[in-house]
């Protein structure tokens, strides 16, 4: 009877060890898998050089954040970081007492343009020019719709102003 108890207790002890061993090995493998997945994340951004420090570097190398109404572009390197702020009212120009004829940069037009002496809807003429591959003509016609930028600020249309740095 005592011999039977010893054999049964030995079998029970061995079976308990074997059952916990599988759990320990499974936990060990799970820890390794979690570590590997933390180091490999497809959504993580890694850079091996700083953003170019130039006048328009923020346009090419920044990471934009925001919601369209306001935002920022963040760029730089390890030692320093630059922040370019953007807010919809950072714009030069606009209506004022001195510019009663302000049109937002849009040119008054009847919506047609002369092509070979015939009045053609300007949008159709632009589409046809692009279809032919004539981008110079298409760009010229587009300028007849919206005008060109007024970087000098003399016509009141204005331009975007950046803020921060």
From TrEMBL:
UniProt entry keywords in alphabetical sequence: Signal
Entry annotated with the keyword Signal: yes
Keyword field contains Signal: yes
Signal peptide: 1-26
Gene3D superfamilies, A to Z: putative glycoside hydrolase family protein from bacillus halodurans (2.70.98.50)
GO molecular function terms attached to this record: alpha-L-fucosidase activity
InterPro entries tied to this protein: GH95_N_dom
Protein name: Glycosyl hydrolase family 95 N-terminal domain-containing protein
């Amino acid at each position: 009877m005592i011999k039977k108890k010893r054999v049964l207790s030995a079998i029970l002890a061995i079976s308990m060890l074997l059952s916990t061993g599988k759990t320990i090995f499974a936990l060990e493998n799970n820890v390794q898998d979690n570590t590997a997945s933390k180091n490999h994340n497809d959504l993580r951004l890694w850079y091996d050089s700083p953003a170019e420090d130039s006048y328009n570097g923020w346009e090419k190398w920044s990471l934009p954040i925001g919601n369209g109404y306001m935002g920022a572009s963040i760029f730089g390197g390890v030692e320093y970081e630059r922040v370019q702020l953007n807010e919809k009212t950072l714009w030069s120009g606009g209506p004022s007492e001195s510019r009663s004829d302000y049109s937002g940069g849009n040119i008054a037009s009847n919506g047609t343009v002369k092509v070979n002496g015939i009045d053609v809807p300007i949008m159709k003429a632009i589409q046809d020019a692009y279809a032919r591959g004539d981008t110079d003509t298409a760009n010229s016609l587009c300028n007849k719709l919206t005008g060109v930028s007024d970087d000098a600020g003399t016509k009141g249309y204005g331009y975007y102003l950046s803020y921060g740095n």
